[in-house]
Amino acid sequence: MDTARSIETKIDQDLIAKANAKLAGDLEHDYAALGKQLARQGIDIEQIAEKVARFGVAIPSWGVGTGGTRFGRFPGKGEPRHVFDKLEDCAVIHQLTGATPAVSLHFPWDEPDDAAALRAKGEALGLGFAAVNSNTFQDQKGQARSYKFGSLTHTDAAVREQAVAHNLHCIELGKKLGADEITVWIADGANFPGQQHTARAFERYIDALARIRAALPKTWRMMIEHKMYEPAFYATVNQDWGSSLLAAQTLGPQVFCLVDLGHHAPNVNIEMIVARLIHAGKLGGFHFNDSRYGDDDLDAGSINPFRLFLVFNELVDAEWRKVKGLKLSHMLDQSHNVTDPIESLMTSAVELQRAYAQALLVNRDGLDMLQTANDALGATMVLKRAFTADVSPIMAMARSRKGAAIDPVAVFRASGYRAGCAARRPAQQSSGGGIV
Ligand code: RM4
Ligand code: MN
Ligand code: MN
User: Phi and psi at residue 145, in whole multiples of 5°?
Assistant: First the structure.
């Protein structure tokens, strides 16, 4: 969805236009200079800019509230109180970046009293609904059975039943909102060797997922998300991409693997996992974030931008090879503990576009030749050349042409939006996502 279609703009469009006018001259100059530089490599900057402009990533509704750790949470002023407030913040992110046209909701955190009203609000704000997420990793008030020892893979069939029913409910809600995907991440696992029967837990996982899949509309996809550890510290049931792929293959054509960049051991080669899942026709999408040690949920590109580039390099390569049936859902999954979530989400979306733009600069035919000739240094230099290019003017131009902000953070700060939120949203317990 385009910002131009948005009815309720939260930040004065005039403020954006005025701020852009001040920067437009420099941007034209930088864009033209980069265009000349790329032309010498046979690259048409306009083609890159068009692709970057079309790139969108979904905002996780749980990311717009201040995050926390198990040691504490330090909420900022003007946090969203409920899903409607969250949508407004997401609309601001999209208004200023033009890069986040959809929102990924998490139930029951975002459970609406009136799904039609929520859908209408999204439409009014120019936002669509990406994958819905089920939550069977926390007990909710009034819930009959506890997830302390698992959900979809629990030893007690009644608990599994409850967890399946929740997922079916999420699908129903998603249908009402116009979504067409569900992401299932479970916390099920064990803290101690021997606690859980490794093989049987996985069998129960497949059985429960098969029941959810049976309720999927034909046009829907289910994505399953692996995670190495946390909250289970010895083993998780869907621990790694191998388990995830096995489950997705067993479950058939509507089930795909979702890669959350933070869900692997620190030195794992994620770009290779991406390539393998593409090969298997089972890569469904991403939860983008960055990490140094574990599932840190830091801002995309903030710790290891080269790794992010290498992931996008695989995606662009697959596009270049015209891999059939590749459909990817891009989502952020981050926790913002010390920054304004809106600022973090805006810059993260831009960092994804940066990695994408850089990957588009890779001379694929040249790389192919160098690889065939076993020219290791030459080949790696092709990637480095693309990665070290400053493509900022491309993203800025894409934003400017959409009426979004050339400098989103500066406009956000000048807009007083957060102070306005603080005045109209009295502090209270966040409605979820801010606490994990
Ligand atoms: C998990 C996982 C899921 C997300 C929850 C909040 O670690 O990344 O995708 O739904 O956190
Ligand atoms: Mn995730
Ligand atoms: Mn995670």
Answer: -125, 150
Contact (Cβ atoms closer than 8 angstroms) between residue 3 and residue 84 = no
Let me know the angle formed at the C-alpha of 293 by 290 and 298, rounded to the nearest 5 degrees: 25
3-state secondary structure 354-382: HHHHHHHHCCHHHHHHHHHCCCHHHHHHH
Which of 260, 330, 335, 430, when mutated, tests ligand 1's pocket best, judged by the most ligand atoms within 8 Å of its CB? 260
Are the beta carbons of 395 and 97 closer than 8 angstroms? no
Nearest ligand 1 atom to the CA of 225 is 9
Closest-lying ligand 1 atom to the alpha carbon of residue 436: 6
Q: Are strands 128-129 and 106-107 parallel, antiparallel or unpaired?
A: unpaired
**Low-confidence stretches of the chain (pLDDT beneath 50):** 1-6, 435-436
Distance 257 CA to ligand 1 centre (A): 14
Distance from residue 261's CA to the centre of ligand 2 (Å)? 8
H or E segment to which residue 248 belongs = helix 241-251
Q: For residue 136, give both structure tokens.
A: 């069977």
pLDDT in tens, 340-379: 999 999 999 999 999 999 999 999 999 999 999 999 999 9
Contact between 394 and 47 under an 8 Å Cβ cutoff? The reply is no
Is residue 144 packed enough to be buried (19+ CB in 10 Å), middle (13-18) or exposed (0-12)? Answer: exposed
